[in-house]
Amino acid sequence: xxxxxxxxxxxxxxxxxxxxxxxxxxxxxxxxxxxxxxxxxxxxxxxxxxxxxxxxxxxxxxxxxxxxxxxxxxxxxxxxxxxxxxxxxxxxxxxxxxxxxxxxxxxxxxxxxxxxxxxxxxxxxxxxxxxxxxxxxxxxxxxxxxxxxxxxxxxxxxxxxxxxxxxxxxxxxxxxxxxxxxxxxxxxxxxxxxxxxxxxxxxxxxxxxxxxxxxxxxxxxxxxxxxxxxxxxxxxxxxxxxxxxxxxxxxxxxxxxxxxxxxxxxxxxxxxxxxxxxxxxxxxxxxxxxxxxxxxxxxxxxxxxxxxxxxxxxxxxxxxxxxxxxxxxxxxxxxxxxxxxxxxxxxxxxxxxxxxxxxxxxxxxxxxxxxxxxxxxxxxxxxxxxxxxxxxxxxxxxxxxxxxxxxxxxxxxxxxxxxxxxxxxxxxxxxxxxxxxxxxxxxxxxxxxxxxxxxxxxxxxxxxxxxxxxxxxxxxxxxxxxxxxxxxxxxxxxxxxxxxxxxxxxxxxxxxxxxxxxxxxxxxxxx
Length: 527
Hints:
This protein is mainly β. Helix content is about 0%, strand content about 50%.
């Protein structure tokens, strides 16, 4: 059904007027932004904006330059905010529209019989709005109920119909007229002969409650991703949680979930922390994150009070950098393990050179069959675990001089449901067992495995609503972290931090939830 929605999804749209117009032109959207092209394909102007959702219409009047004027709306992928763009002659002019109060999944424009321009913003959860565009701003006309998680939309201006594709259901038509009762009908349903959706076996894991949560990130949609924990050297209760907002930068929270810092370093995806790193004659606490726009590593320093600052940006030769974890060698050196969407995993040594500059050395590289992301190093065993999202969890020797021979320790299926996301190690104290914690995104659960062969599954759990504290449960978790340090109070046996894919109580941008390890150990009867 996507062909019916091509007007909203096409990468290049002709926006010249009728045949014979003086300056026929087109818009092209790619990863570098929106381009205004002439009839020969030459770039006349460019708007640097990362966007995947957009639509366009012709203006009612010609531009001041004498040619046809055109208008487009793009959704800023980093901020979730619509941007109005006018193509006038050989120039693109952009204006920000109001910020929606929900995650926009699709958008489309409509020119009504009066010649007025409307914008439909379709929400991920089926709560949508119709706006009236006037000049360089917009006002809400009405709210309407539409299909959840729409694949796209377009408007038939002549028939005054909004068409919305609902996955697995079919194509809906909604009347675009603002007055009167909302009207909709199912135009074309999904094939009745479609194969039934397989239902995964449900595991009756215990449901635990988060004890705290962070303030929401500043962007709607798929924004929060991966946490890491820094331990205060004298007082565990003053430790910090680092979390990525992949549409903005790095956030730093205290153990009550209050935001302490925001470092706007761009589209960072995964972050990890290692303390007491030995390099250049210094002992340092460091964090590293993957920067997707630059395919680079961003290196951060953390002082004794948990203040974070950027130290360097270190290039890689990955083409689509994604996940990352860190490992400290027995000598106290720092190794980074970034991965690429094409399946590659690399191992870099990060160090200060003789001139006091940060540098990386590529130590080894290997490749999985499909996209990885989450990974973790069990330093006590010098073992690297890597999550291949659609296939399972792999283990191999973390030492750079060893051959990279991944072994599948837990395949997807059964308790572990794709996507395989965050991985973390709970390092047992005083000879007690260590555990591998994994986010099973497909069934909104968390699995606990022995961190040593044969990597037996010890159980799983979910995180539900804590009504007393007003904290919602968690679902579709991306990254997570766990440490066995004494953080005081509820967290004296350790702390788990997980990303929450859907913030409730109330609805809002994503955040991170805190959970005492003691609750997991009690529920699963762990040593």
